[in-house]
Amino acid sequence: MDIDDVSNLWLAEELHRQGGVQFGDFTLGRSTRHSPIYIDVKVLLRVPQVLRRAAELIVQETQAELGRRRGRFVPFDLVAGVPFGGLHLATAFAIQSDTPMIYAIPHHDGSRERVLEGHYRPGQQVLIVDDLMTTGGSFLETQRVLTEAGLRVRDAIVLVDRDQGGAERLRRHGIQLVSILRLPVMLTYYMSQGYISEDQYQRSMEYVRTHRAD
Known about the structure:
By secondary structure, the protein is of the alpha/beta class. The protein has 8 helices and 8 strands.
């Protein structure tokens, strides 16, 4: 556990306090089947000051990466929220950082094609933001829409990373990811605080280890 993980554990505490961490048997789309743990980051919307703090944390992380000599980020012109879970977080970040925001939505004719909302110019650099990542599929779909519109995508940031191979998958597609908090770190913290049982901890960690993106 590195220093960044420790400094961001307030987020794990807040998610637990707001009921955003549940244990059971959850199937959520194609990438999460029979998971023993469910993370609902949207509970942060219940407490505006917590959402604000999360957005401020992302601002700090992006500024730190941009300021480092060998930082992972390149300067960006726009922020794109991943529909639909990442839109509230991207909006809060856009306000905190004074960065214009765009996002992709399904086409009005019901087709699978998506259109971009917001003002942009081809060639601009875009930072993708989402609240939760499992395998990275939503990031890649957003990247596709953005690049087809002539925009450039190199970097992404996620509030909670389930750590199931999504970062490696994005890297293979040319996207550098910064994760604010990773699920194994959260689970270790919850176990140390007595919030979860040994069985919940072991089953969740085993699921993360064995269910990874290709």
